[in-house]
User: What shape does this take?
Amino acid sequence: MDWELLSFILRSKRRKEVILALNTPKTPSEIASKIKVSVSHVSRTLNEFTKKGLVRCKTPQAKIGRVYVLTDKGKDILKHLKK
Assistant: This one.
């Protein structure tokens, strides 16, 4: 378990909501409508998560409707958040 990453997620309500919404593959707009924040907030958060190795874009060539999934690291964090 990466405690620094867990701390990073827990420091922001938005980050926690985004990672919890990614229990299944979703697009940024699906996440935004589910947690009721702007798509730009979700996109910024997904970018942070990608850099930290928590999520991976399954459709990087798509301009619109990119699909994001949790990596093993992200799933580990999600498991701890759901406890």
Summary: Helices lie at 3-10, 13-21, 28-35, 39-51, 72-81. The radius of gyration is 12 Å. The CA atoms of residues 16 and 67 lie 19 Å apart. Residues 3-81 form a domain with the Arc Repressor Mutant, subunit A fold (CATH 1.10.10.10).
